[in-house]
Amino acid sequence: MIQRQLTHHLNRALADSPAVALLGPRQVGKTTLALEVGERHNAIYIDLESEQDRAKLSQPELYLADHQDKLVILDEIHRVPGLFPVLRGLIDQGRRAGRKAGQYLLLGSASLDLLKQSGETLAGRITYLELTPFQVLEVGPQSQEQLWIRGGYPESLLAADDARSLRWRQDFIRTYLERDIPQFGPRIAAETLRRFWGMLAHHQGGLLNTAQFARNLGVDAKTAASYLDLLVDLLLVRRLQPWHANLGKRLIKTPKVYVRDSGLVHALLMIPDKETLLAHPVVGQSWECFVIENLLAAAPEQVTGHFYRTSGGAEIDLLLVWPNGNKWAIEIKRSLSPKLERGFHAACDDLQPERKFVVYAGSERYRMAGDIEAISLSELSALLKDT
Questions:
Q1: In angstroms, how far is CA 14 from the centroid of its own chain?
Q2: CB-hemisphere CA count at 13 Å for 49?
Q3: pLDDT (tens digit, 9 = 90+) per residue, 220-259?
Q4: How far is CA 195 from CA 9, 42, 83, 180, 239, in A?
Q5: CA 378: distance to chain centroid?
Q6: For 268-318, how does the pLDDT look when each residue is reduced to its tens digit (9 = 90+)?
Q7: Phi, psi dihedrals of residue 59, rounded to the nearest 5°
Q8: Does domain 136-385 have CATH number 1.10.10.10?
Q9: Helix axes of 210-217 and 190-202: crossing angle, nearest 10 degrees
Q10: What secondary structure does DSSP assign to 167-234, as a single string?
């Protein structure tokens, strides 16, 4: 079993908080991780998609009160939203009895309903963690290329060959569209949402143009925006926000948008293997977004990610910003012999970041110019994790 980077954070959260919500897309490994951690706590596992398990909670106050001395894992918690007020009362009851942490672990496949419901009733009682698909720190640099091509979902990454991996991802997309997404919002035609998801893959890493998406889909801009919001809330798509600063320059203020898992991008575009990917126009943006997702997953929780671009051509692919204002500027190149462009130097002159890196496809770390270092994705991810 591949060790997940989040294991330590999950154990620490359970030691500090009465309830922990572990969020992430379906099939990302939440249940596996929860059961692994639960073994240490003699936990009880309840799958709320199972009729038998839901029957146990026909009177949730009585059932859960009988197990207040154990960690209770509630999988697919969004299926029973009425549980949140019950959990609040039991958590407060447990606190009065001296049990201040490690009461409930809630697993959810989306952020929108879960955050809304738990935020209203469990404020001050819950910690949120997000489990992403596998990242390069978890699989190692020797598997980086396969991780990029197949994506980080366990069943896809660990498939016996590329054909089976692609088939799994195509089935995953179909299941999400036909069965899972209708649980979280108003009914949307699966074919319409698939077309929209495919447009995002073709537009990978581009500036968001809701009006253009709406025209291509034949819907109004508000509807297209709601589709995007849904995929963002399902943790399948990311809006990377631009960095704003009062620099006296004309800044690009539109977010970038991309499908978060590179394997899903390739499945949506019918790219079966590395050779096809290298000949496809999306290859550069696929690699850039793959690097960004890995670095954001490795960065400390309080660090925020942005991009920076001016109308004059100054640009930074990824700007990591710490709460104290420190900044790391990161340029992303797929080449084994990367070359810096004038726009990166101009952007660094504007923002004066503390550290400057060029992430490239090689493994050697070396100084390119002045205080700019070329570095591999795995090494920079490890550096961020230890910061």
A1: 21
A2: 10
A3: 999 999 999 989 988 999 999 999 876 667 888 999 999 9
A4: 37, 45, 35, 17, 19
A5: 18
A6: 999 999 999 999 999 999 999 999 999 999 999 899 999 999 988 999 999
A7: -125, 80
A8: yes
A9: 140
A10: HHHHHHHHHIIIIIGGGTSS---HHHHHHHHHHHHHTTTEEP-HHHHHHHHTS-HHHHHHHHHHHHHT
Q: pLDDT grade, residue 125 (50/70/90)? A: confident
Which one of 1.20.1290.10, 3.40.50.300, 3.30.460.20, 3.10.20.600 gives the CATH number of domain 6-130?
A: 3.40.50.300
Encoded tokens for 350 = 């504007």
Q: Kindly indicate the confidence band of residue 115, based on its pLDDT and cuts at 50, 70 and 90.
A: low
Long-range contacts of 300-309 (CB under 8 A, 24+ apart): 300/384, 300/387, 303/384, 305/240, 306/240, 306/241, 306/242, 306/243, 307/240, 307/241, 307/242, 307/243, 307/256, 308/242, 308/243, 308/251, 308/347, 308/350, 308/351, 309/242, 309/251, 309/252, 309/347
Q: Count of CB atoms within 10 A of residue 116's CB?
A: 13
Domain ranges of the chain: 6-130, 136-385
Contact yes or no for 101/17 (Cβ under 8 A):
yes
Residue 41 pLDDT exceeds 90: no
pLDDT in tens, 309-350: 998 899 999 999 999 999 999 999 999 999 999 999 999 999
The gap between the terminal CA atoms of the chain, to the nearest Å, is: 26
* Rounded-to-integer distance, Cα 31 and Cα 43, Å: 13
